[in-house]
Amino acid sequence: MITAAQSVLKEYFGYDEFRPLQRNIIQSILDKKDTLVLMPTGGGKSICFQVPALLLDGLCVVISPLISLMKDQVDALRINGIGAAYLNSSQSFEEEEVVIEDCINGNIKLLYLSPEKLKSSIPMLGRFNIQLLAIDEAHCISSWGHDFRPEYTQLSILKERFSDVPIVALTATADRVTRKDIIRQLNLHKPATFVASFDRPNLNLEVKTGIKTRQKDQEIVQFIHSKPNQSGIIYCLSRKTTEELAEKLREHQVNAAAYHAGMSADDRNETQEDFINDRVQVVCATVAFGMGIDKSNVRWVIHYNLPKNIEGYYQEIGRAGRDGLESETILYYNLVDIVLLTQFAEQSQQRELNLEKLKRIQQFAEADICRRKILINYFGENFEDSCGNCDVCKNPRKHFDGTLLVQKALSALLRMNESVGITMLIDVLRGSHKAEVLEKGFDKIKTYGAGSDLSFNHWQQFIMQMLNLGIIEMAYDEGFSLKSTELGKEILFGKKTADLVYPVVREVKKTQTIPLDDITPVVETTDDKLFEALRRLRREFAEKEKVPAYSIFTDASLRQMVAEKPQTENALLSISGIGQRKMEKYGTQFIELITNHINRNGSGSRTKGDTFKETLYLLNKNFTPEEVAANRKLSLQTVFSHISALYIKGDNIDLLQFVSLDEIERVRLAHKATGSDKLKDIFDFLRGEVEYHKIRLALGWIERK
After folding, report:
1. Transmembrane stretches, by residue range (predicted)?
2. Do 245 and 369 fall within a single domain?
């Protein structure tokens, strides 16, 4: 069955190899076991139930929380030639009847259902030949999770009604407590549990602390203008902020829209559809936006404010770079966020839990060690090495003895009877002449103006460090006033020292309204031109079929086309994400575009000969094909296609170290019997007993001989 699964993966989804754990998860499902899957956003969760669904003789029912997510996934499956449908509140009675009839007749392999629709659908589901139940976003069932949804609690009925049908529960964010609760609430029977690595090395992590709103807005405008045509999401705490920020961005020629729960359903749907279909570049949104976004080419995510917890932060940044390409994430963090989020947590039903989770995300934002290490270790995965792709790794923090600085702050705080908040403390330290300072007589205390040599921003960052180090604490029940801890008093009286980190200094140019003509991206290379031409062709197909462009081909697939410039069906099939169905549907036009481009411009900045030579060079240095793929950031299948082409051309390569004479003979006979050069035809003829890359190499051997 796993061999058959490999064939399905290539034919329908265009991938040569399973990602880590996918093969084991699929085997567990095919063995009829209940299964719990914890895999990060973009890690390939859907493949884990979609591949088994195509192998099982019956229907897979998928419980999915959002209508938009259902539609995206069903559209993508249909493009791949897979029978898929959904049932939710957006459909008429007649539309539902058509779907039900198709399910009964076996025309549908995957049926997506909302949790709200489940209870009334149980009698109907009994008429179907259900072989698998998949629960997506399974953390929503647990009150310990960061996104609890009451409608998910009724899912326990599934095990009661379909006791012999295996259930696979999937989520991107769940700590140990939440995982146990998912298993309990779904009544899973001795489930096989798979926890994939949470490392998303393609995401750059950056945190910016204590930046005022105006400066923050300037930075964001500059950042977006440096990323022309790139899709991005900006998460904000309040509805008002999303609207104000979107308006500011539009004033600077950024195609931006707001999204929040206060908008009408029609307006929210329009914004989401525009973003998915690349009609809007940037969405400024509250956390209500995102779970339904299956958009693979989001290149960056910005958090305008500190998130409530690490789970939410991790899931939100995970919406960037789902296609595996380099993507950026920026988190802006200010003390005002802490005050507001603490109020939310204090008023919530799970006060202690939410306060603790807030403390953990605050520690992450204030950390002076590798951020990825903190993030991944939070989810119980051991990550020892620093990542080299976060702001701390790229700019290691410099420490200094901050004892005197801390003593100044504590002395001022105690002289004001520990009755003031952060802003007042800084104003007094800097010798401010504000009316409130003078009215309270704080200009008369000994430490008034003792810190006038430091900016307000620097003092704010130092006080945040003091909070995190436990030198001071915030009394949330006394108007958020600051109090010295016992550790603080020991430092004040010279019994202990304080180790602080120098603030990060940033320069931001003044932002002006930029004319549209000045921000139009300049296409400089022939490869850039080819990529844009491929994007336009993809857009034509997407508009004709009324689906998102990335459902046709991902940006990663287009980038690989630019690098490899395939001009035959077999060459295009070696591109990751292109299976037989997409080849048959779109291949001719894309090959024709690439061929015409080469005829007009040559092969661009890097020719096929060049890329083959790079592979040959590494092979001659005794790199394995797997090491060549990793070193050059190519798929393993592409490396083997290089090896085959190099061998045919006459380069000195020992092909028999990769494929045996027996396998070559079997491929030769299959090639003769089928009369086809297509890898898929030969693979099927040999019943999957010879792998795709070996078929490619064998055909190369046969052609050269």
Report:
1. none
2. yes
